Amino acid sequence: MQSEVNRCLSQWLERGTVPLKNEFNQLALRIGIRLLLGVQVEREIEQIEQWYTTLVRGAVALVRWDVPFTNYGRSQKARRQLRQFLQNIIAERKSHSRQTSDDVLGLFLASVDEQGNALAESQIIDETIHLLNGAHFTTATSLTWTLVELGARPEWRERLLSELERVLGDETLNLGHLKQLNQMTYFFKEVERFYNPAGVVLLRGVVKEFEYAGYCIPPGWGVIVAQGLTHRLPEIYTAPETFDPDRFSPLREEDKKHPFALIGFGGGEHTCIGMEFANMEMKIFLATLLRHYDWDVTPKYEAGVSQKFPFQAERELQAHLQIR
After folding, report:
1. Which residue of 112, 205, 214, 231 sits 20 to 30 Å from the alpha carbon of 41, by its own alpha carbon?
2. If we measure between CA atoms, which residue out of 165, 151, 143, 152 comes closest to residue 321?
3. Taking a C-beta distance cutoff of 8 angstroms, is the pair 103, 38 a contact?
4. Among 158-162, 240-244, 297-301, whose mean pLDDT is lowest?
5. Is 31:143 a contact under the CB 8 Å cutoff?
6. What pTM was estimated for this model as a whole?
7. Of 193, 254, 270, 255, which Cα lies nearest the Cα of 229?
8. Is 79 within 8 Å of 57 (Cβ atoms)?
């Protein structure tokens, strides 16, 4: 993660101004490819990036014909190519009995079900692509709005930098340091609350009739949780329309009022399996940025605009980087 973050920031510095969300998408995807799939060869990383970008582009296509001249057709071809690439990796690892846990793909290959049977290859491939997707979008969205909010809040930038200098001293950033960056944790939690990165989440289909708020919900229905509304409930969060990371400090801990008060990563049994992966990645990026760089983000939005329409606003955001 650190090597990819260093590479990313060096490129930003050379280019001057960069499209913020697109750059974070690429950074998160490269980290996902290396750590989830175990791919380290540069040309293979670039090839997977191309396939994945094409696949995602086709996911929102209106014309869903699997033919070569449509975005959807090209996305399905990219999906087949990506699946074949993963099948080749799996076959190679099995032939060399290399089913280690060096990466997530290795963990899947080494896993067994309740009866002691290995997971089906198709299941492993589907889950790996799903995790790659999850590691991609939500992390990029959270980092994008972290830079926007810190750019507008110099007092918080100084607080996080002071904490970082106190924890690290002259040492190189390591895992132990990340666990001590409490102020940074509060800030990322407030970004999660304020700019919910996942939008809405379809949890599960209803299998047994139940009643909620006076309504009967029958079997067969799908239940969608509107996370953004949960994160704005005044009975949980004080002044919920105000960006205030201190609400997560030990003196307040507003997210502890209810077990599902903060659900940017889901909750309960369905908490995102990549939550700690994402938090580690975001802390490494922000710690490196704060120690070595200053930045500006444009355009600057009036209060209330960006959080109401984050997915439209983030497309226009540009960042300019300078050495501290």
Report:
1. 112
2. 151
3. yes
4. 297-301
5. no
6. 0.87
7. 193
8. no
Instruction: Write down how long the chain is.
Output: 324
Which segments of the chain does DSSP mark as H helices, in order? Answer: 2-15, 20-36, 42-59, 71-95, 104-110, 121-152, 154-168, 175-180, 182-194, 227-230, 275-292, 305-308, 310-313
Query: 55 with 82: CB under 8 angstroms?
Result: yes
Token pair of 237 as six digits: 């969060």
Q: How far apart are CA 145 and CA 286, in angstroms?
A: 12
DSSP letter (8 states) at residue 209: -
Which amino acid does the sequence have at 173?
L
A 10 A CB-CB count for 204 gives 8
Res. 144 pLDDT band, cuts 50 70 90: very high
Q: Which amino acid is at 182?
A: N
The amino acid sitting at 220 is G
> Residue 136 and residue 82: Cα distance in Å, rounded?
16
Q: Token pair 């960042």 is at which residue?
A: 319
Q: What domains can be seen in the chain, in order of their start residue?
A: 2-38+102-323 (1.10.630.10)
